[in-house]
Amino acid sequence: MPVQVDERGMVRLACAAMGTRFEVLLHGGDPGWLHAAGEAALDEVLLWHARLSAFERSSVVSAINRSAGEWCRVDPETFGLLRLCREVWEKTGGAFDPTVGRLMRAWGLRLEAFDAEEVERSQGCTGMGLLELDEAGCRVRLADAGLRIDLGAVGKGWSLDRAVGVLRDAGVENALLHGGTSSVIGLGLAPEGRHWRVVVGPGANSPRVELRGSALGVSAHRGREAVVDGRAVGHVVDPRVGSPVVLGESIAMTAAVVHESAAMADAYSTALLLRPELLGRIEGASTAVCVKDGGVERWSVDSPDLCVVESTEFAHV
Amino acid sequence: MSDVFKPDGLPRREFLIQAAGAVSAVALLPTILPAAPRPREVLKVGIIGVGRQGRAIAVELGKLENVQVAAICDNDSARLKTAQGRTQGAEAIEDYRKLLEKADVTAVVIATPTHQHKEIALAAVQAGKHVYCECPLAHTPEDARAIALAARGSKKVFATALEGRSNPVYTLARSFFRSDAVRAVVSMRCHNHQKRSLRTPSSDPAREKALNWWLDKELSTGIPGEVGTQQLDVIHWYRDAYPVDVSGYTATRLWDDGRPAEIGDTCGCDFGFADGTRMQFEATLANSFEGKYELLAGVNSAIKLAWTHAWMFKEADANRQGWEVYANTQQFHKDEGITLIADATKLASQGKLQEGVGLPNPPTYYAISDFVRAVSEGKAPAAGADDAFRTTVVALAAHKAAAGKTRVEITPEMLKV
């Protein structure tokens, strides 16, 4: 069976990674070549899954967590990701913070059940300032032995950035990639000759974004919520208070950021969710959207009204 | 090479001693997670070939103290440029001969296409480098033999990437296999399912041909060589024996992209051993179900090996050692597997046995660490060129049998270096 293309002339591939489904859509060339390129891009995603997963004992993240209190040598690429995390942590006043790993587990937002005592013990065990980076030695150290990192809020975007690099190296000009639909990159144009367009959310009035060679990161409290003492809590822990939000309170429920980097879009969307006042102040972002109970706040450099989307077949939080 | 493994001739209960308490029993298990090697002086390594595997090795080398990837080499300039962006301060060199001229680079990793191994390996030995060579060793038995002979003549370390032999979980499971835990072998199986075409993309047709060397029937080692070598070696290593014949088939079930029928995307091989036991190798690129594992079943139990994990499934009538009651287990439909945990002694004493499930690093880490340890401590590597030569010969025989849908004999003569 030769490689199949859909009715829009696109080759589609998918893989399971980082607890979700990654998909690549490509067009503009020989289907066999496009498929091979998509396969290489997904290989890159799987490679990063193996390095960043907090659930795989052989991952780099697990190695860093195991060696808390001691220096741990990592590869230069992973070191670059941690450097980026610290940069965003500083710029968002700590709203984005991958050192919430222990709290995520304690609150029952990973594999473990909610553990009130562990929540208590984990308070204070956060802060990227406690993650020491040794540039020359390519080493990292969790200064507090109780600290644990979790790169779930940036891993999908980081992987997609690398996967797009693989596609570019292969000569691919047009592709859309996403991880669980909450991290998306548009490369080149859609088959119809316009930029890739994405709807943020399932509703008819959901904000719509056009990706001009850029990435979209979406964060939401809902999606994988947990139930604690009979109350539903969101799946994003606020590192400043050490807990997730209780769903139903008047808070921002969805945040989206368009950025040239999917990793940045992911990280900043998490920060925006927790600190809506960052709207319009995110460095490098062309568009940001914050959906609250009372309505939608929008900010955009490219187009103040955002973009009207014709095709809504794709993308939802 | 020794004779076919004879269970009766092996030491029984090498380390499994009946004990009353869980911790005391577990404490009898060997500590097998090796400490990371740390050369006294900085070991500068050159990586020749920076495709997928070369990159994976660079990542694992990057985790080791006092080891530096000083140079990378690839004759594909686009790939070399990308790789340089991923390594820290490594010099990029297009011609491997220039890399071998660098006196400060004392060790090299050969991760090029298989048919290029011989020329580079012989030159590296000639240049006095320590060598770590990917497997299969070569695309012909003649080339593989030439490499093995060169390795024998080398005064430096010559290690090969048979990753099972340095894998701590596999080492632990092998100890069980060679004790009374499994006893007489009943059947063996290597399963390798993945859904990928294994075609490398390039916008340049000339470059694409070079990058897709393994789909060229003149250069390819087929599915048995490309995806099966590591698994076949595990069986050889566990049994301390090599098969005497192989028959097989290959077919194209999904990737009908012009690849030769002799290579295809699906392959099955049936190996016979001198003691009458048989081993099945089943591989496809058209379905990913159950991934990659090896299964060795004996009259007392079966051992399943899945590279980062391993389990033992005991028969109901098999002797119990006591510790099984306290072991970590995992359910596979109706079968309960005892998780084999590396470094169980240490973890059990800390009450953290559960945290020990799975390898703490990828298998490639242990293979490359073993090489660095061999270089820095003057020890023999876990996998040498002779081992890789024999497994390569078996894999090539399997490819020949599968491509021709025929039976191929594997004689002792073929396995002599």
Question: Quick recap of the structure?
Answer:
By secondary structure, chain A is α+β, with helices and mostly antiparallel strands. Chain A has seven helices and 16 strands.
Describe this structure in words.
- The complex is a heterodimer of chains A (317) and B (417).
- With 317 residues, chain A is of the alpha+beta class.
- Chain A has helices at residues 31-52, 60-66, 76-91, 101-106, 116-122, 155-169, 262-274, and strands at 11-17, 20-27, 71-73, 131-134, 139-142, 174-179, 183-187, 196-199, 208-211, 215-220, 226-228, 231-238, 243-246, 252-259, 285-292, 295-300.
- Chain A folds into two domains: 11-51 and 156-300, Roll (T-fold); 60-142, Orthogonal Bundle (T-fold).
- Chain A contains seven helices and 16 strands.
- Chain A has an eight-stranded antiparallel beta sheet with strand order 1-2-6-7-10-14-15-16. Chain A has a three-stranded antiparallel beta sheet with strand order 3-5-4, covered by helices on one side. In chain A, strands 11-12-13 form a three-stranded antiparallel beta sheet, with no helix packed on it.
- In chain A, α1 (31-52) packs antiparallel against α6 (155-169) and α6 packs antiparallel against α7 (262-274).
- The longest helix of chain A has 22 residues, at 31-52.
- Chain B has two domains: 7-28 and 165-357 and 392-404, Dihydrodipicolinate Reductase, domain 2 (2-Layer Sandwich), CATH 3.30.360.10; 43-163, Rossmann fold (3-Layer(aba) Sandwich), CATH 3.40.50.720.
- Chain B is built from 13 helices and 16 strands.
- Chain B has helices at residues 22-26, 52-61, 77-86, 96-100, 117-126, 141-153, 168-177, 205-211, 222-226, 229-239, 344-349, 363-377, 385-404, and strands spanning 43-48, 67-73, 91-93, 107-110, 130-133, 158-160, 185-193, 245-251, 266-272, 278-284, 292-298, 301-305, 310-314, 329-332, 335-339, 407-409.
